[in-house]
């Protein structure tokens, strides 16, 4: 059996088209949705990420501001910038790119962002809203994974067993909560799990979010299962690869996301969706 691909590029194109339509409608009413992206320091990967985020905004007709600061910026200066953006009515979403230089406390900066503009979904208020099932901004990567499941008719996971591998605040934990919200029975596995394959073999849906190659191999997957690969790693030849042994697992799974072209583009897409939603709320 060969799995069907869940194409993150195609789904992103569709969803970004929908954002563009909503952005045009809101702009016609005199409110252009705006995202501020703040980058401190010169981390090369972060520079690529923020460039992609700003370009995606422009392509969808959103206003975007990229604020770049040297690594010598102090925590107090960054907090002051966040506060100014909180009070800027042309900005509906604020994203401070992580990681920040070591002398700045990530947590303190994220908590300084208004929860009304926390389009990354990283603020404790956003995380808490997810826990209790109240509306708030959802973390973009797991939100994108949920959209991928929805796109194959699995918006409701009643009766399904989902296994999440990884327990990060950014992906694993919010992913588990979103799956739970969609009625799945959820198991979260992590570095302290003694027999990972035992759990994954029972799963109808596996989400791999560890950041390590070949965490999930064909022998660990139930035939027909849906496999979502959040990983972004490099193989021995320097080629981009995920956490899943794609060539093996695609012979067993029913559906699988590729890397690249799977979850990756969905993260930025959901950032646009969140920013759009924030702007629409501002008009209400
Ligand atoms: N660094 C890597 N991914 C992300 C992300 O999604 N948001 C922010 N703010 N920083 C990141």
Automatic annotation (TrEMBL):
Residues annotated as binding NADP(+): 166-168
Domain of life: Bacteria
Domain (Tetrahydrofolate dehydrogenase/cyclohydrolase catalytic) ranges: 6-120
Any one GO MF annotation of this record: methenyltetrahydrofolate cyclohydrolase activity
UniProt entry keywords in alphabetical sequence: Amino-acid biosynthesis, Histidine biosynthesis, Hydrolase, Methionine biosynthesis, Multifunctional enzyme, NADP, One-carbon metabolism, Oxidoreductase, Purine biosynthesis
NCBIfam families in UniProt: PRK10792.1, PRK14186.1, PRK14189.1
Subunit structure: Homodimer.
Family: Belongs to the tetrahydrofolate dehydrogenase/cyclohydrolase family.
Protein name: Bifunctional protein FolD
Gene (name only): folD
């Amino acid at each position: 059996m060969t799995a069907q691909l869940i194409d993150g590029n195609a789904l992103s194109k569709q969803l970004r088209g929908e954002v563009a339509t909503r952005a045009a409608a809101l702009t016609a009413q005199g409110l252009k949705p705006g995202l501020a992206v703040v980058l401190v320091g010169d981390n090369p990967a972060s520079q690529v990420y923020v460039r992609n985020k700003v370009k995606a905004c422009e392509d969808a007709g959103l206003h975007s501001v990229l604020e770049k600061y040297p690594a010598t910026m102090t925590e107090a200066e960054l907090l002051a910038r966040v506060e100014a953006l909180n009070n800027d009515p042309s900005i509906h979403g604020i994203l401070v790119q992580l990681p920040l230089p070591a002398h700045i406390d990530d947590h303190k900066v994220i908590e300084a962002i208004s929860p009304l503009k926390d389009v990354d979904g990283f603020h404790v208020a956003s995380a808490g809203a997810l826990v209790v099932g109240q509306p708030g901004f959802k973390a973009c990567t797991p939100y994108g994974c949920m959209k991928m499941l929805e796109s194959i008719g699995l918006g409701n996971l009643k009766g399904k067993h989902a296994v999440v591998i990884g327990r990060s605040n950014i992906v694993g934990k919010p992913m588990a909560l979103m799956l739970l919200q969609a009625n799945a029975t959820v198991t979260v596995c992590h570095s302290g799990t003694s027999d990972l394959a035992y759990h994954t073999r029972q799963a109808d849906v596996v989400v791999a979010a560890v950041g390590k190659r070949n965490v999930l191999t064909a022998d660990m997957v139930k035939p027909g299962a849906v496999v979502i690969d959040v990983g972004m790693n490099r193989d021995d030849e320097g080629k981009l690869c995920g956490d899943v042994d794609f060539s093996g697992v695609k012979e067993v799974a029913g559906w699988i996301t590729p890397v690249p072209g799977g979850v990756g583009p969905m993260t930025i897409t959901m950032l646009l969706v969140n920013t759009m939603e924030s702007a629409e709320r501002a008009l209400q």
